[in-house]
Amino acid sequence: MTLSLNDLPLRDDLRGLTPYGAPQAPLPIALNVNENTHQIPDAVASDILDDIAVAIRDVNRYPDREFTALREAFAEYLGHGLAPEQIWAGNGSNEVLQHILQAFGGPSRTAFGFAPTYSMYPLIAQGTGARWIAGTRQPDYTITPEEAAEQVRAADPDVVILCSPNNPTGTPLGLDVVEAVYEAARGIVIVDEAYQEFAPRDAVSALTLLDGRPRLAISRTMSKAFAFAGARVGYLAADPAFIDALRLVRLPYHLSALTQAAAVAALRNADVMLGMVEDIVEQRDRITATLEALGYTPHESWSNFVLFGGVADPRATWQQLYDRGVLVRDVGIPGHLRVSAGTEAETTAFLDALASIGSAS
To answer: Among 26, 269, 302, 330, which residue is least crowded by beta carbons within 10 Å?
Structure first.
């Protein structure tokens, strides 16, 4: 007899939900999940492996529960006068967000974000027992400080998540919006800067707003700019008291010694690792320009992907690209598809495949 979820005593609030999962297919050009498709430079990979080789000799012992060296490395990388006690990390930024929702959300509490936004936010909220509330954006996916504050006051959430730049739209978020939301909110405000390294160089991070705002946290990841998606390392900066709250809910020794060693070594090579960003931004802008030439409507993006409209039948276009060996993402926004900026060769393959389908109608 084959069982289904309905046959198990699952929590009532999880019934009917489906797990997160972007399509994974063995296609030669996979540009659907906003990965950094550039491989880590050989010299950096060798340096990381040297540190892992040292760490592996002590894996019979539990790792540093406070991941001290890694927090020091993150504080140095982020700058802004941050101290190690203001840093937290986890197995990907999703786990970092989960820690926040476990500590400040949970049953009978609410989490809020402006839709469309990262599809994991409501899943993390629901998984920790909180109720997700979706706010709205302008037709071009921007948010004004006044509208943002009004919606937050009306919803009165325990946790607000602001994605900056926003996923899946790539839309930048002004610091004035963050300030307005913080003043309007009584609870925690998270600014998820997973794609911050792809923003213009003069773009100011929300890290500049941390001082004097103990309910504010700035989340980052090594998955994107650092090409470390498979290593699963996310982190945040916040007030030390905020960090103490996360210790209450994390599992013991949640970051392995190998993860810590690899991340510290990667951060030591930050200048080389971030050298890939400039090429990715160049390919992103190339995608935008070519999409416009083909008659599509790409949205402004400060990330490593482009959301584009003008797609008459997203599912059919997705399949036509798939049949040509190119995997992109249908994020469920009518008339739109999303594509990650890959290497020059991958970008060319996508643009050629799209052009072969025909211009937007």
So the answer is: 26
Question: 107: burial class by Cβ within 10 Å (0-12, 13-18, 19+)?
Answer: exposed
Parallel, antiparallel, or unpaired: how do β-strands 131-135 and 87-90 relate?
unpaired
Closest to 174 measured CA to CA, from 205, 147, 198: 205
pLDDT in tens, the chain (361 residues): 788 888 899 888 888 877 776 667 788 999 999 999 999 999 999 999 999 999 999 999 999 999 999 999 999 999 999 999 999 999 999 999 999 999 999 999 999 999 999 999 999 999 999 999 999 999 999 999 999 999 999 999 999 999 999 999 999 999 999 999 999 999 999 999 999 999 999 999 999 999 999 999 999 999 999 999 999 999 999 999 999 999 999 999 999 999 999 999 999 999 999 989 999 999 999 999 999 999 999 999 999 999 999 999 999 999 999 999 999 999 999 999 999 999 999 999 999 999 999 776 6
pTM score over 0.90:
yes
User: In the β-sheet with 297-298, what is the strand arrangement from edge to edge?
Assistant: 297-298, 305-309, 337-340
| Residue 65 Rama label (left phi>0; alpha psi -120 to 50; beta) | alpha
